[in-house]
Amino acid sequence: MSAGASLWSVRTVAIQANQVLEIIWIVWLMSWVGASFWSDRAQKRATTMETWTYRAAMIAGGILLVPWIGQLLEKKPIWEVGHAAMYVLAAVMLAGLSLTWWARIYLGPLWSSMITRKRDHKIIDTGPYAFVRHPIYCGLIIALLATAVAEGRLGALLGSVLVILGVWQKARTEERFLVTELGREIYGAYCRRVPMLIPFLSRRR
């Protein structure tokens, strides 16, 4: 095999590996939007300035994470990721997104894209909710970090940081809302048992 053919083969594999990440995100996003209809009607919604702040951070970060946006803003990535490492990162990303779906299924119709209280709202503390209070956000953070490392661009890194900050702020806002709606004694006890975003972290005392 000639040097030119060998180089073409390596680039082809690398491109295919990169496309795997994009396909996983597209499939996840389509399935997530489709499942949004599996949700009970909200009885009350959280409406504060913080809701607009975390949404703005997540939207801006999401835009920066789009591959062609990164290529438009930056000619060259900060680092190159080999095809083997790209598949490893794809597996990590898939694991994170699988965690979001595991948690979504456990929530069932109690899930909402916004911070709400549903009829017969209750604390779910089994399955993924037994080791982290916000497993959907935890899974997203894992997937976002893997994506940013795979892209190797400053824009992608900044985008992932913005989305993660938005997710963290949403989680904090959601917890204050649930403490008010469900009671500090009930939700506070759950907070003391289970960490917020990082599994197996020391529990709040």
Structure, explained:
By secondary structure, this protein is mostly helical. The protein contains 7 helices and 2 strands. Strands 1-2 form a two-stranded antiparallel ribbon. It starts with a helix and ends in a 12-residue tail after the last helix. The N terminus is likely disordered.
SSE arrangement:
Blueprint lengths: L2 H33 L6 E4 L3 H17 L1 H7 L9 H25 L8 E3 L16 H17 L2 H29 L1 H10 L12
Antiparallel strand pairs: 1-2
Helix pairs in contact: 1-4, 2-6, 4-5, 5-6, 6-7
Shape: elongated
- What is the number of beta strands? 2
| CATH fold-type name | Four Helix Bundle (Hemerythrin (Met), subunit A)
Q: Which strand order does the major sheet show?
A: 1-2
Q: Could you tell me the mean pLDDT?
A: 83
> Number of DSSP helices?
7
Beta-strand percentage range: under 5%
Question: So what's the CATH class?
Answer: Mainly Alpha
Number of domains: 1
What is the rounded Rg? 19 Å
Question: Quick gist of this model?
Answer:
By secondary structure, this protein is mostly helical. The protein contains seven helices and two strands; from the N terminus they run αβαααβααα. It has one domain: Four Helix Bundle (Hemerythrin (Met), subunit A), CATH 1.20.120.
